[in-house]
Structures are given as C-alpha cells and as structure tokens.
Amino acid sequence: MAAPIVYGIPGSPYLRSAMLALEEKSVAYELSALGFGQSKVEPYLSRQPFGRIPAFEHDGFALYETQAIIRYVDAVFPGDSLQPRDPRQAARMNQLIGIVDWYFFPRISATIAFQRVVRPHLGGTPDEAIIAAAVPPARHCISEIARLVGEAPYLAGDALSLADLMLAPQLVMVGMTPEGRDLIGEQPRLAAWLGRMKARPSMIKTAPPMPSA
Ligand SMILES: N[C@@H](CCC(=O)N[C@@H](CS)C(=O)NCC(=O)O)C(=O)O
C-alpha cells in the first residue's frame, strides 16, 4: 500500500494536526509542501476545492478537512487509539475539536496569529486594530477551554486524543505572539498542558519553520 501524502504550507496549524496524527500512529508519510498562493490555484484546488490546507491522499483515496483526515488516520493505522472509548470523554474530545474549528481558529488564529506571525512572514505589517479587537474574544475562548480541560493531563482525560492534536498547533502559533503568550500565561493548567504537548516527539518532529516554534 502506498504511503499517505499530506499537502499543505509548512507552518499551517491544520496541516500540523494531520501530520501529528500520522506521527503519533508511527505512520511513514510524505509531506507535499506548497508555497504561499499555491493553495488557491490548480492543481491543489482539485484536491481541496475550498483552497484550504491541508489535503490528504492514501493509496488513491483523496480526502480533505482536518477532522476527517485525523479520524481516518486513527481508524486505518495500528497503534494506540487516539479516541477515548468512554462516551463522556469522547464527547469532550468532540466538543473541544468543535471549539477549535468554530471559535479558536476564526477568532484567534485567523486574527492574532495571522496578523502577528503570517503577515510579517509575507512582508506585510500587522493590523493592530484587528489584533486589539481580537484579544477579548480570544481571552473568552482560551479561558473556556482551560475550564473544560480541568485537572486531566490531556484534553479528553488521561490519554492523548485527537482534541490534543487539533488544539496544540493552533495554541503554539498563537503563543508566538505577545498577546497569545499573555493569554496562555493567564491559564496555568493550559500552559502546563501545552508544555507537555511541546515535549512530545511528534510535536518536536513537526515544529513549524517559523521563529519561536
Ligand atoms: N475546515 C478546514 C480548515 C482549514 C484551514 O482553514 N486551514 C488554514 C491554514 S491552517 C487555511 O487554509 N488558511 C488559508 C485561507 O484561509 O485561505 C480543515 O479542517 O481542514
């Protein structure tokens, strides 16, 4: 069977989530790296018609949407499951994945992290008004995630789950900004969780090619 291929711009948090799932399952895979702009044109649009990152292929099976990719990887490859059996822990995992997709990414990653990390990388200047407006909703979102995490070592309990793989890359990128560092610093349990995540071999291996990763 052919090795899976993940397509995306190195440094993208969602791409990193897909790579993390493969790393955690010890799957050999290929990263097909795109440059900025290449996700908005063919041939990539045939893989991901919405022009978002990442896209994935395994042995002729093409897939996009990060949640679908990491659930597929977990289901298809051997190794420890990345999804709790306990229904409440599974529900918590799914809830946190939903929070990443619906609140964290649009309200924090696409505002603070994009303006402070991605824009300068592309030669632009951060829009301070966008950043200032994003801080209160970012604080609300991060404190709610910290409340849900509670005392458990991982987001959905005692074992690593897909929720950890979804949130960690987004939080790492936001943590490269002064605003993000302050917001994470306000939540000691979440900061400790992020420290544990950053120490995992999968995170070290997939560290993005940007400063302070
Ligand atoms: N729902 C998509 C979202 C992916 C996404 O938004 N990725 C970001 C990069 S981390 C992206 O493509 N940004 C470029 C853009 O917004 O045009 C998924 O889960 O794969």
Characterize the structure shown:
This protein folds into 2 domains: 5-76, Glutaredoxin; 87-203, Up-down Bundle (Glutathione S-transferase Yfyf (Class Pi), Chain A, domain 2). Helices cover 57% and strands 8% of the residues. By secondary structure, the protein is α+β, with helices and mostly antiparallel strands. It is built from 9 helices and 4 strands; from the N terminus they run βαβαββααααααα. The longest helix has 35 residues, at 87-121. α4 (87-121) runs parallel beside α6. A hairpin with a 2-residue loop joins β3 (55-58) and β4 (61-64). The site of glutathione has 9 residues, from α1 and α3.
Give me the secondary-structure topology.
Blueprint: E1 5-8, H1 13-24, E2 30-33, H2 44-47, E3 55-58, E4 61-64, H3 66-76, H4 87-121, H5 128-149, H6 162-174, H7 178-185, H8 188-198, H9 201-205
Parallel strand pairs: 1-2
Antiparallel strand pairs: 1-3, 3-4
Helix pairs in contact: 1-3, 1-6, 4-5, 4-6
Bound molecules: glutathione.
The site of glutathione has 9 residues, from α1 and α3.
Question: Uncertain regions: pLDDT < 50 for 5+ in a row?
Answer: none
Number of domains: 2
Major beta sheet, strand line-up: 2-1-3-4
Q: Structural class, please?
A: alpha+beta
CATH topology of the largest domain: Glutathione S-transferase Yfyf (Class Pi), Chain A, domain 2
Termini Cα gap: 34 Å
What order do the SSEs take from the amino end to the carboxyl end, as H and E? Answer: EHEHEEHHHHHHH
